[in-house]
Write a structure and sequence with these properties.
The complex is a heterodimer. Chain A has 14 helices and no strands. Chain A has helices spanning about 1-30, 35-45, 45-80, 85-90, 95, 100-110, 115-120, 130-155, 160-165, 170-180, 185-200, 205-210, 220-230, 230-255. The model of chain A has no long low-confidence stretch (mean pLDDT about 90). In chain B, helix 2 (about 90-100) runs parallel beside helix 4. The longest helix of chain B has 18 residues, at about 165-180. Chain B has helices spanning about 40-45, 90-100, 105-115, 135-145, 165-180, 190-200, 215-220, 225-230, 335-340, 370-375, and strands spanning about 1-10, 15-25, 30, 55-60, 60-65, 75, 150-155, 185-190, 200-205, 210-215, 235-245, 250-255, 260, 270-275, 285, 300-310, 315-320, 325-330, 345-350, 355-360. In chain B, a hairpin with a 2-residue loop joins strand 9 and strand 10. Classes of the chains: A mainly alpha, B alpha+beta.
Chain lengths: ~260, ~375
């Protein structure tokens, strides 16, 4: 029996070791092209600083709007029964299974409708603008946010909300005083992951907003531009920044979700 | 205090009701029924958490059927207590008073008396409700429910997760609360001991229907329907036929067993009845022991067929002579030790007429008057 246990342990640890090694190879291979002084030099370039700033601003706005809409939507899906709920629940997942390029196409096409033209009439232009970057990122990340928050709300015991109602809270009061505080870890995790996904968004953003340096080029689209022009130092600098952001996010999520000991 | 009229509620394929119930001030009603019988749905509908399909709920003479739960002034203690883990013990208890913006001077004084009553002074300053023991959590949840001075307190199987000792302590405490604070309590349970210990009145709900409401003895000794009798663990139930209605109104029954039983309105010859007696009401008598005339009716010779031991009691399964009928007799251990019966012993059993109940088998339930007559 002991031998079988050891064999099983080995069988599950081996793929994990291979996977870890592969990721280390991916990250480590950057070091051949990376130098600290080169990194600082790249950071002093206006177009790179613009890409970083644009990525951070657009991701912050798009993820804030996404989470802001996802909280009530996810709560409704988790708690309220209404006709067509299963259909809507499935439909909202669409951006998660659709390739971002296709999503970007959908956004552009939708702007060519009466509603799009009306919004353009009010000065809201989406193609090749910062608003386009934000809309593209929002469209990609909002479904992730809804899915995460729905799972969070479903984990909260509805009895706690019912007891709050009977202790004097309205439905909104019970949501504010009981549900939201109990969901705070899930909401924080959703904010962090949504923001991280928005920072890394490429396909839909490129389709909707293009890659105009200093205007609509984000970190991922700048990496694409740098690689297409064989500018490896710039590409590696941007990759290292993205890796840094990703590690910070993963660490942040762990801090939020894992109970403090 | 609370009155429900023709209340019907649905959840999925399950339908509760129609239910009619009237409960006065400061009463203690236990709603007893098997799991899945609709007890919790009944509470939820009365509290306004579930909208009824039909019927009305009245509180203090005011119809509240369409009024939001928070405006009904009912407090609720669910089975899992639903303490708020993001709040400390004091914040949990004060939650309702703060949300209702009650006068804090009055609240503080009531809090002090509740902490005394529920012995919660030692835990009131705890930061994490997860560190409380099961009994402490129960008392904190009870204090939280009672602090806003509710009109009614609804309890849904509140002691099901506790060990026997703590459960008994809290049951005694609940009775004190009902008497000292005068709060009307509706307590849902499937535990028959708990229901009979606490409820001044007991309502039996089976398969979504309110089968019987009444005082403890009514329910215990005079079940109105066969499913109530079975649910209340009446072991000795016999299907018999009315042979004669005697001049004093009592019935002579026959078929597998010849018995004299209390009568009821509308009883007539040839009517099919179920009659029964609780096992602890059966009297056992040694074969040669002289007996008084009050035990001469419904007296049978029998043989001990089996003996079952249940902690503090023994159940003798005795087979009546000249028939296939077996009767269960429950005896406390001390009586069993004195009598010293063993399997194969012969004895006499008396199914006293006044201890028997009868239920017509045509589907009708006995009226309250008939039940009272039988009790007398």
């Amino acid at each position: 029996m002991k031998q079988w246990d050891a064999a099983f342990k080995f069988a599950v640890l081996l793929p994990l070791a291979v996977l870890t090694g592969y990721f280390l190879l991916l990250v480590g291979s950057q070091s051949a092209f990376f130098s600290f002084f080169g990194f600082i030099e790249q950071l002093s370039r206006a177009d790179i600083r613009s890409a970083i700033a644009l990525s951070l601003i657009a991701a912050t706005v798009s993820s804030a709007v996404a989470v802001g809409i996802a909280i009530p939507s996810a709560y409704a899906l988790a708690r309220i029964d209404f006709p067509g709920k299963r259909l809507i629940d499935t439909f909202i997942d669409l951006p998660m299974v659709l390739t971002p390029i296709a999503l970007g196409t959908l956004i552009l096409m939708s702007w060519n409708t009466a509603i799009g033209r009306m919004l353009a009439g009010f000065g809201l232009t989406i193609p090749f603008t910062l608003a386009g970057v934000i809309l593209a990122q929002f469209t990609v990340v909002v479904a992730i946010s809804v899915r995460m928050l729905k799972a969070t709300f479903e984990q909260i015991n509805p009895r706690q909300e019912q007891v709050a109602r009977l202790l004097g809270c309205s439905a909104f009061g019970s949501f504010i005083h009981v549900t939201l505080p109990l969901a705070r870890r899930g909401i924080l995790a959703a904010i962090i992951l949504t923001w991280a996904r928005a920072v890394g968004e490429f396909g839909a953003t490129v389709m909707v907003a293009g890659t105009a340096r200093g205007q609509t080029a984000t970190l991922p689209s700048s990496i694409y531009l740098a690689m297409s022009m064989a500018d490896l130092p710039q590409a590696v600098t941007l990759v290292v920044i993205l890796i840094g952001i990703a590690l910070l996010v993963l660490f942040g999520v762990r801090m939020v979700l894992e109970p403090q000991t | 205090m609370i009155r429900v009229q023709q209340l019907i509620a649905k959840r999925g394929n399950f339908t509760l009701g129609p239910i009619d119930l009237d409960l006065g001030n400061s009463s203690y009603l236990t709603i007893l029924g098997p799991s899945g019988s609709g007890k919790t749905l009944f509470l939820e509908t009365c509290m306004g958490l579930v909208a009824p399909s039909d019927g009305q709920v009245w509180l203090d003479g005011q119809e509240v059927t369409k009024i939001a739960p928070e405006r009904r002034h009912i407090s609720y203690l669910p089975q899992d207590l639903a303490l708020f883990p993001h709040l400390n013990v004091r914040e949990n208890i004060l939650f309702g008073a703060r949300r209702r913006q009650l006068d804090m001077t009055r609240v503080e004084s009531r809090l002090t008396s509740l902490l005394d009553l529920l012995a919660l002074h030692s835990v009131i300053d705890r930061n994490d409700v997860a560190t409380l023991s099961g009994g402490e959590k129960q008392r904190v949840a009870l204090a939280r429910a009672l602090l806003p001075e509710p009109r009614l307190l609804f309890l849904d199987e509140p002691f099901s997760a506790l060990d026997a000792t703590i459960k008994r302590q809290l049951q005694v405490k609940l009775r004190e609360i009902n008497q000292q604070l005068g709060v009307t309590i509706l307590h849902v349970t499937h535990d028959q001991e708990e229901a009979f210990m606490l409820g001044e009145q007991i309502a039996v709900v089976i398969s979504g229907q309110l089968r019987q409401v009444g005082a403890r003895d009514d329910i215990y000794y005079r079940p109105a329907t066969l499913d109530v009798a079975r649910f209340l663990r009446n072991q000795n139930i016999f299907d018999l036929t009315v042979q004669d209605v005697l001049p004093d109104g009592s019935l002579q029954l026959g078929d597998d067993l010849n018995l004299y039983a209390p009568g009821h309105a509308g009883a007539q010859r040839g009517q099919k009845l179920a009659t029964g007696i609780r096992s602890e009401e059966v009297i056992v008598i040694r074969p040669n022991k002289p007996i008084g005339p009050e035990l001469e009716d419904n007296l049978f010779h029998a043989t001990v067929d089996d003996i079952l031991v249940f902690g503090g009691t023994h159940t003798l399964c005795v087979k009546l002579h000249n028939s296939d009928v077996t009767v269960d007799v429950e005896l406390p251990n001390c009586a069993m030790r004195d009598l010293g019966y063993s399997v194969g012993d012969t004895l006499r059993v008396c199914l006293r007429k006044r201890s028997l109940w009868t239920i017509p088998l045509d589907g009708s339930a006995l009226s309250r008057e008939d039940q009272n007559d039988q009790l007398r």
